Amino acid sequence: MSKIFRLSIDLDTLTDELYAFVMDPRSTRYQRRVVKELRALAPGVIPVMDMMILDGVDERRHVRDYVDAVLGGGADQDVFYVT
User: Fold this and answer.
1) For residue 8, what pLDDT is reported?
2) How far apart are alpha carbons 61 and 52 in whole angstroms?
3) Tens of pLDDT along the chain (83 residues)?
4) How far apart are CA 29 and CA 34, in angstroms?
5) Which of 56, 38, 37 is nearest to 46 (CA)?
6) Which of 7, 38, 72, 80 could form an SS bridge with 68, CB 3.0 to 4.6 Å?
């Protein structure tokens, strides 16, 4: 059966925006456009980014690994990003 909906996601831009969110020390990071859009489409991503902040993630590749795991072409079906 074919999928009814297909979302087009620019993984590089999403990674950049999420990395900027993780690296932003201000509380205003929650006002970023990417946060607003993800709350509607994939709200489970934001708590993962919060955990990355707490874990001290400071390399873009870690954010990219997560984005690839949940949204990339070889997305791991065991990783859930929508709550």
Assistant:
1) 82
2) 12
3) 567 777 788 999 999 999 999 999 999 999 999 999 999 888 889 999 999 999 999 999 999 999 988 887 765 556 555 54
4) 10
5) 38
6) 72
Each domain of the chain, given as residue ranges in start order, spans 11-71
- DSSP 8-class letter at 73: T
The token pair at 67 is 């984005």
Measured distance CA(28)–CA(8) in Å, rounded: 27
Those residues with Cβ within 8 angstroms of residue 56's Cβ, 6 or more apart along the chain or in another chain: none
Q: Tokens for 26? A: 């201000």
Q: Where are the alpha helices (DSSP H) in 6-81?
A: 11-23, 33-41, 45-55, 60-71
Which residue has tokens 């707490």? 54
